[in-house]
Amino acid sequence: METLKLGFLASHGGSNVNAIIQAYENGQLLAVPSVVISNNSGATALEHARSAGLPAYHISANAHPDPEELDQQILHALRKHEVNLVILAGYMKKIGPQTLHAYSGRILNVHPSLLPRHGGHGMFGRAVHESVLQSGDEMTGVTIHLVNEEYDEGAIAAQFEVPVMPGDTVDTLAARVLAQEHFAYAETINRIARGEIDLDKL
After folding, report:
1. Catalytic residue annotation
2. How many helices (H) and strands (E) does the chain have?
3. Does 129 reside within a domain?
4. What's the pLDDT tens digit per position in 119-169?
5. Are 155 and 186 spatial neighbours (Cβ–Cβ below 8 Å)?
6. Does 51 reside within a domain?
7. How many domains does the chain divide into?
């Protein structure tokens, strides 16, 4: 199997970007981080990339107001760095149709619940954990899934459970789920690299 070359799309803190880069630097990742792209020039994710010596691109609608051109620029950056697996890490924009088509079945996203529960449009960040607590769920977790045209509806690659504890608040639950995300994303990438998860068969 060809080496997985990862291209990250992130909008803000990029803690998952950092966790995956750290796994690579520690010799615990069977893939190569290749480029980080953000629609936010001040994103910490870009700082993580630069600290690791990775190419870092700010590509946003500010410079490319035409959605088609914006899509082309993102796709060009991914192809320039020979990316064959796209990793979304808190990317708050919809992926353009050209990029979606070019990387069909090769774009992963992480969601902080056990999909299909607590997913869909507007379900991100605190809103997800609030929904979990309001529902009285005893178990939540992390879902790594393929990205398609609809929010949180792509095929599921892997899920990792996180128990909801008595007395949990949004903040305590969010912190525990995020810690699991940092493990889960790298572990799922490794499972793909080892052939344990076949993205073509999801």
Report:
1. 111
2. 6, 7
3. no
4. 998 899 999 999 999 999 999 999 999 999 888 899 999 999 999 999 999
5. no
6. yes
7. 1
